[in-house]
């Protein structure tokens, strides 16, 4: 139990550059065994045998699993798909869970920063990598997994997306954490709120993001606007949306959409927003369906769910996550950590419920409203605390190993499974017709026909042919020591006294 309780307290073995790696030396220990060491400065960085944060990996893996489930089974079960507007479904927890774990991981990864310049360089580089992959995977270039084509019309390329939002939040939160290194306390003062005052600059950054979002949302004037529907009709058709108001939180005239139309242009927004499933737009609500004849014009318009203003609000999710990471660092006892986490999660839930049910600020993922931030952060706190109790307090690690494996190879599973790249590759090998591929055959004959239900067959296909399959693949890759990273390798392998490798954790982001 003592060893398990230390897992969450382990920090990051910081990276060395290529020159350091070339200067590796072998030094003799007291009993004659040898370990690889770099130079004196590097030797101070390498610590005794450290372990990855098991709860962090399991939570990250759970988030990836939820994403695959709601993306691929959401069409069959609309109730778990994104809420068409106000409200919160299972799919609506995925993005804030990502950002929460980004914050937690940043706190651990940047606990020790010997050279601020190097840390900033790595943060900026990793942000650019996230932006690149985001545009490549969700900008319209990739048509995986169903369409065996690639390419994007630059007139309609989508600039925003999941990885782009993660990149923005990661960059802002990580830079604040880095630039306040010298202000970071080694010990906390007395009082329950000392953890907040000790990291006041992190909270100040989150408060600034909150102010920008709230002021813009409720004071920005939204005029009438027009768009051309290129995707829902045979011929492009122009529509006008009547607005001329401020502080509107409905689909048509909110400030979030207006900012994105002005910054990116209406043609560069997501062309199939979830509000198309509203009752005002289709009789098939909450599922997909043809537009009603009397559907308002905005039902056909693009809208960016990962836009600029809503991403500024999303910085709060990362700020709350980094607070939970700070609690891990400074509070050593399990009960102390859980008290901090539970109390804050409870407060966030209460704030969200009051704001939502008084109609002051409804819970809304598309707008990334403040009540949505509080509600989903409170949920993340409960799930993370539950994982911590089960895995790190009670030591029940085995039942969650597949989540850990997926969490340790999150980027691989995200690209290959959630973005459908692997399925697209398999679909590329077909017989006579593109629908005669292995993926389609397995889904149709092994799942749908056996259960005589498209819905049940789809759900079981996602659970077993996607989630379970990639859990096994991630486990095999973990055993082989193969990981796909978006950054320079942060692991420093050294030899223990038995000649086996061990390494420090690598946790500075959701796709570490």
UniProtKB/TrEMBL annotation:
<keyword id="KW-0812">Transmembrane</keyword>
<feature type="transmembrane region" description="Helical">
    <location>
        <begin position="341"/>
        <end position="358"/>
    </location>
</feature>
<feature type="transmembrane region" description="Helical">
    <location>
        <begin position="370"/>
        <end position="391"/>
    </location>
</feature>
<protein>
    <recommendedName>
        <fullName>Heparan-alpha-glucosaminide N-acetyltransferase catalytic domain-containing protein</fullName>
    </recommendedName>
</protein>
<feature type="transmembrane region" description="Helical">
    <location>
        <begin position="90"/>
        <end position="111"/>
    </location>
</feature>
<dbReference type="Pfam" id="PF07786">
    <property type="entry name" value="HGSNAT_cat"/>
</dbReference>
<feature type="region of interest" description="Disordered">
    <location>
        <begin position="1"/>
        <end position="35"/>
    </location>
</feature>
<feature type="domain" description="Heparan-alpha-glucosaminide N-acetyltransferase catalytic">
    <location>
        <begin position="52"/>
        <end position="181"/>
    </location>
</feature>
<dbReference type="InterPro" id="IPR012429">
    <property type="entry name" value="HGSNAT_cat"/>
</dbReference>
<feature type="transmembrane region" description="Helical">
    <location>
        <begin position="308"/>
        <end position="329"/>
    </location>
</feature>
<feature type="transmembrane region" description="Helical">
    <location>
        <begin position="53"/>
        <end position="70"/>
    </location>
</feature>
<keyword id="KW-1133">Transmembrane helix</keyword>
<feature type="transmembrane region" description="Helical">
    <location>
        <begin position="156"/>
        <end position="180"/>
    </location>
</feature>
<feature type="compositionally biased region" description="Basic and acidic residues">
    <location>
        <begin position="1"/>
        <end position="10"/>
    </location>
</feature>
<keyword id="KW-0472">Membrane</keyword>
<feature type="transmembrane region" description="Helical">
    <location>
        <begin position="412"/>
        <end position="431"/>
    </location>
</feature>
<feature type="transmembrane region" description="Helical">
    <location>
        <begin position="458"/>
        <end position="477"/>
    </location>
</feature>
<feature type="transmembrane region" description="Helical">
    <location>
        <begin position="201"/>
        <end position="222"/>
    </location>
</feature>
<feature type="transmembrane region" description="Helical">
    <location>
        <begin position="123"/>
        <end position="144"/>
    </location>
</feature>
């Amino acid at each position: 139990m003592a060893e398990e309780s230390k897992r969450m307290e382990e920090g990051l073995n910081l990276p060395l550059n290529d020159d350091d790696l070339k200067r590796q030396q072998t030094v003799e220990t007291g009993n004659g065994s040898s370990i690889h060491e770099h130079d004196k400065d590097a030797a101070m960085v390498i610590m005794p045998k450290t372990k990855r944060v098991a709860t962090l990996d399991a939570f990250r893996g759970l988030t990836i699993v939820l994403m695959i489930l709601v993306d691929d089974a959401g069409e069959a079960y609309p109730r778990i798909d994104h809420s068409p507007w106000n409200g919160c479904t299972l799919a609506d927890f995925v993005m804030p869970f990502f950002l929460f774990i980004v914050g937690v991981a940043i706190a651990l990864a940047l606990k020790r920063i010997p050279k601020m310049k190097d840390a900033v360089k790595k943060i900026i580089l990793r942000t650019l990598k996230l932006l690149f992959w985001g545009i490549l995977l969700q900008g319209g270039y990739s048509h995986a997994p169903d369409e065996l084509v690639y390419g994007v019309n630059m007139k309609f390329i989508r600039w925003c997306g999941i990885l782009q939002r993660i990149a923005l939040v990661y960059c802002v939160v990580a830079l604040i954490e880095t630039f306040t290194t010298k202000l970071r306390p080694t010990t906390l003062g007395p009082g329950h709120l000392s953890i907040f005052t000790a990291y006041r600059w992190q909270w100040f950054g989150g408060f600034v993001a909150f102010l920008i979002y709230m002021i813009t949302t409720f004071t920005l004037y939204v005029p009438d606007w027009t768009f051309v529907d290129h995707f829902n009709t045979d011929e492009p058709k122009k529509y006008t949306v009547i607005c001329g108001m401020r502080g509107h939180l409905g689909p048509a005239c909110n400030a979030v959409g207006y900012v994105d139309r002005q910054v990116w242009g209406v043609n560069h927004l997501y062309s199939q927003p979830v509000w198309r499933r509203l009752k005002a737009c289709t009789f098939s609500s909450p599922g997909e369906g043809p537009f009603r004849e009397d559907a308002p014009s905005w039902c056909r318009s693009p809208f960016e769910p990962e836009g600029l203003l809503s991403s500024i609000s999303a910085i709060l999710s990362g700020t709350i996550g980094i607070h939970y990471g700070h609690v891990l660092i400074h509070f050593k006892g399990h009960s102390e950590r859980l008290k901090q986490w539970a109390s804050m999660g409870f407060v966030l839930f209460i704030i969200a419920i009051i704001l939502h049910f008084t109609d002051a600020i409804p819970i809304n993922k598309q707008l990334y409203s403040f009540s949505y931030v509080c509600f989903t952060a409170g949920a993340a706190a409960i799930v993370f605390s539950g994982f911590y109790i089960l895995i790190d307090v009670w030591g029940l690690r085995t039942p969650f190993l597949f989540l850990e494996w997926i969490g340790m190879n999150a980027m691989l599973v995200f690209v290959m499974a959630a973005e459908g790249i692997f399925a697209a590759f398999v679909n590329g090998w077909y017989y006579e017709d593109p629908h005669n591929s292995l993926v389609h055959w397995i889904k149709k004959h092994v799942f749908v026909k056996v259960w005589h239900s498209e819905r049940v067959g789809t759900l079981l296909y996602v659970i077993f042919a996607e989630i379970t399959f990639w859990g096994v693949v991630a486990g095999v890759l973990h055993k082989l020591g193969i990981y796909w990273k978006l950054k320079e390798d942060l692991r420093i392998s050294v030899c223990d006294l038995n000649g086996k490798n061990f390494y420090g954790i690598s946790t500075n982001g959701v796709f570490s």
